[in-house]
């Protein structure tokens, strides 16, 4: 039985940004995961998004496959993905739908179910996507302050001016087709970008491993809190901070219950150079990673996860 992890709760509506930034710093250094409350996303919108997500995944497979992922947008069927590419097991038992950036010039790569089949599906997803981008940007400015940087640091380095936000609708079936081998809902992985904001339908399954280099791995459950997003730091933020802020390994275990979640990945603009912050390195603690361009890094990670061609550029 996994222990239950008690994560910090960060209030996005607090007027005391200094103390909020301090709590974020501690949470990111200790665990890389925290809850975000009072984020301003209405419950009614969240319910509509979950409802529409369920409607999409209930369509016949051939209908969903008409929107099969291209350029990393659209539908990925069950077992299409192996997040833990060092494992040779079957892919993950989940299906998903990716919605990429909505900004002009990029949004034409998105794939949408037709209005006749799922009326008002697209506007619902677009309004959630936009809302989450604004919550994510607010959070990033607090993360900058948590690193003793100017609140607009990540804007100034070009990460957030035309960023790469991806909304991913996820569906984990309750009953598994194969029970003779080790099957994960999502196998062990860390996220690639800056931050991820996750909402779930309340069904458990998410686990984190705080010490990724220790064996055997110890997994702890992350319980759902009504109305809270689960936020985690991604690998690019870990690179920026020279591992001060942790991109923690996590996974989703099947529980026999059907599960839906919404993961919003906020990734820097593809041209943004991700390099160790001056405040995070010294002679005795030199940069652990060379500088990389966000786009090249993401493409490489995505290509390792999916066998098919993935392109990020519009
Ligand atoms: O569904 C979840 O709870 C987590 C999904 C996840 O970690 C991911 O898609 O990166
Ligand atoms: Fe993840």
TrEMBL record:
Q: Which GO terms describe its molecular function?
A: dioxygenase activity; metal ion binding
Does the entry feature the keyword Metal-binding, yes or no? Answer: yes
Q: Which SUPFAM superfamilies match?
A: Clavaminate synthase-like (SSF51197)
Fe2OG dioxygenase domain boundaries: 162-268
State the InterPro entries in the record. Answer: DIOX_N, IPNS-like_FE2OG_OXY, IPNS-like_sf, Oxoglu/Fe-dep_dioxygenase_dom
Query: Which controlled-vocabulary keywords does the entry list?
Result: Iron, Metal-binding, Oxidoreductase
Q: Which residues form the signal peptide?
A: none
Q: Which Gene3D superfamilies match?
A: B-lactam Antibiotic, Isopenicillin N Synthase, Chain
Q: Which PANTHER family match?
A: 2-OXOGLUTARATE (2OG) AND FE(II)-DEPENDENT OXYGENASE SUPERFAMILY PROTEIN, OXIDOREDUCTASE, 2OG-FE II OXYGENASE FAMILY PROTEIN
Question: Which family does the record assign?
Answer: Belongs to the iron/ascorbate-dependent oxidoreductase family.
From the Swiss-Prot or TrEMBL record, give the protein name.
Fe2OG dioxygenase domain-containing protein
């Amino acid at each position: 039985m996994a222990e239950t992890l008690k994560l910090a709760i960060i209030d996005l509506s607090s007027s005391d940004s200094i103390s909020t930034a301090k709590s974020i710093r501690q949470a990111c250094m200790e665990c890389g995961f925290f809850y975000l409350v009072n984020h301003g996303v209405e419950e009614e919108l969240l319910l509509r998004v979950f409802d529409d997500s369920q409607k999409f995944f209930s369509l016949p497979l051939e209908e969903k496959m008409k929107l099969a992922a291209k350029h990393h947008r659209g539908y990925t069927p069950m077992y299409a993905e192996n997040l833990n590419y060092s494992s040779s097991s079957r892919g993950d038992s989940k299906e998903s739908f990716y919605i990429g950036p909505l900004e002009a010039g990029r949004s034409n790569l998105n794939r949408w179910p037709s209005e006749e089949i799922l009326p008002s599906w697209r506007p619902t997803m677009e309004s959630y996507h936009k809302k989450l981008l604004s919550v994510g940007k607010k959070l990033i400015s607090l993360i900058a302050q948590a690193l003793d940087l100017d609140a607009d640091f990540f804007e100034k380095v070009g990460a957030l001016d035309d960023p790469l936000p991806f909304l991913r609708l996820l569906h984990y079936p309750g009953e598994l087709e194969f029970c003779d081998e080790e099957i994960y809902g999502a196998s062990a992985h860390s996220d690639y970008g800056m931050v991820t904001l996750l909402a779930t339908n309340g069904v458990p399954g998410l686990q984190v491993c705080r010490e990724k280099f220790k064996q055997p791995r110890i997994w702890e459950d992350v319980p759902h809190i009504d109305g809270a997003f689960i936020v985690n730091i991604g690998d690019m933020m870990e690179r920026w901070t020279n591992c001060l802020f942790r991109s923690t390994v996590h996974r989703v275990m099947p529980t026999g219950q059907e599960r839906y979640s919404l993961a919003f990945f906020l990734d820097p603009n593809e041209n943004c150079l991700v390099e160790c912050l001056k405040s995070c390195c010294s002679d005795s603690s030199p940069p652990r990673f060379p500088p990389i361009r966000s786009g090249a890094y993401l493409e490489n990670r995505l290509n390792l996860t999916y066998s098919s061609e993935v392109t990020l550029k519009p």
